[in-house]
């Protein structure tokens, strides 16, 4: 009888997988430099420091007149102060220069009086309202200082980052670059292509399930900014599986196999990979997601995921997603108690509002729980559960 | 002097823009039906109801033996119950059938005994542990019931949805389909292409800023699943702007113009669009983002956004993003007081942890505040601000 005899702790399993991922990325230089616009939603492989101060000069934040602020102190509607209009790049006490939003301030000017409070008369301007130093001015480095980190290694590049990078004159950026082959396994799988009208075809589905994990894994890989390729489903047959793995390994950096990782007689994935290379992790003390395997074949990475949708989603999250991308973590009070077993990490799908509500589920195959959740809690091994009202860490999806 | 004389309320402006967007989408059938895998991250244009129960039959959730639960009551290690092994599609009292995870239960069976608690001897199986009805069974409709809505109009299709859709035999889905042309305007703009080394080129930038909003808007449009095309920056010149708008209108459903929407002498965007068609909204009582314009030219949509990065990001969020995509809303206590002006909606960028921290900012041009925020608060017109500790609605980015 095949058994996952000793379950590895999540911490150890993550450490092993992450070390191999890191090693693979570095040794194979799986990083490419691309134009920033192509980097949207990809993962930065470098810290980006600002090469300059932004703004790079003191500039007007309003249309009006650049002045030395002290010249305007005390100005009011009944008692305007009159300054000489100049057009030079430098002003002196008693002078003002007409300026538009975004223009560089002339030397010595330290404030802008909004045009609404000014009146131009010949070569003079009447100032009806005093300004303090820096008023209506965007100062050098106010937004970003030279050397500030504006994007960190591991950040997903979003539209706002693109704005920042362009503003700093940064045209190219290094991102992680990987390709994943996805191999679904299991005699019970039927292809979506074979279904024309599911209500009429429902009898085709007796004892079968539609190969749906491939679509999810494809989406998860794509959303990390990586290439994904789905291969045809493979029966529970070692030779056929070996052939599929070989093809996928040739064409990709890593392979995701879904199905056949548990201990049933039909579960041949782990054994098959063992015969082709090394299985380094098999069985992790988490729920759901226990039957996870990780191995190396031909120096490439093989992730063996459960055939259950939720379990495979959890495994992808813990062993791949979280390596590349930090999830936003917030603290919110629990809506009701959650129990957990000591010695095991529980991955609890939740809905977040003003409280965190664990989603009631009955099995690791319940796909609707994935769709309903917008975050998750990880209950550590040494915690028996949390009580209603407790502030818990929620990772947002 | 040009003035935004009367500011429209956010509510009215949104109503007008949303109605025109809705009208445009319906009249022009800007919806396409595509394969689910291509629909990743696009916006569903339909409610999807499940055509079937999922699972579509009662199935084993474990490897073991399908039984009538009542036959096993009282079974224990010291007092096993012995059942006849059968291979039929229907079992009767006193019978059991070997079954694998995922297999359909034979008729009359209502539970599965895990194989660990069974021992096969010839044509019999010894049961060492009783099960209750439904134990180790995934019941029909447990995940989704026929008619349940699994994806709503307006939902962004994520990898988990793909799993659900495939599981239900749904191959194609209708998504919104729009194209946006992006026109940056302003004499002060310099193209990123002209910068080779920003530290050396810093003098080129005196009085100029790099055209960075185009990149952000491109990313924002793309992340709604739409097509985006960036056009060359246009000087503050009506004829040149008209020409650019005409080209962009010919090639797209909608045009985003960034810059020239305020009331400075150089701000010609609104006037230019007025000469080509109708400007329906100009000036909204929000901060930042006040100088927003919306118009119709040749029956197509023109969004006139501020030239300031933050203001244009806010305008995009309020008038485009939120039309298509609901933001996740949570309630978290405020870390410190926020003041707001009565009569105006304040859009406050925040960072969320166990409290909500408003990001201190000094101007609508501060791009770093966009990068630092992971959510925002909208302070309504009739609220003067919020106090530290108050529970506030935060929209997560």
From TrEMBL, chains A, B:
GO terms for cellular component: cytoplasm. Residues 181-327 form the MoaB/Mog domain. It comes from the Archaea. Pathway: Cofactor biosynthesis; molybdopterin biosynthesis. Keywords: Molybdenum cofactor biosynthesis. The keyword Transmembrane does not apply. GO terms for molecular function: molybdopterin molybdotransferase activity. GO terms for biological process: Mo-molybdopterin cofactor biosynthetic process. InterPro entries: MoaB/Mog-like_dom_sf, MoaB/Mog_dom, MoCF_biosynth_CS, MoeA-like, MoeA_C_domain_IV, MoeA_C_domain_IV_sf, MoeA_linker/N, MoeA_linker/N_sf. Belongs to the MoeA family. This is Molybdenum cofactor synthesis domain protein. It comes from Methanocaldococcus bathoardescens.
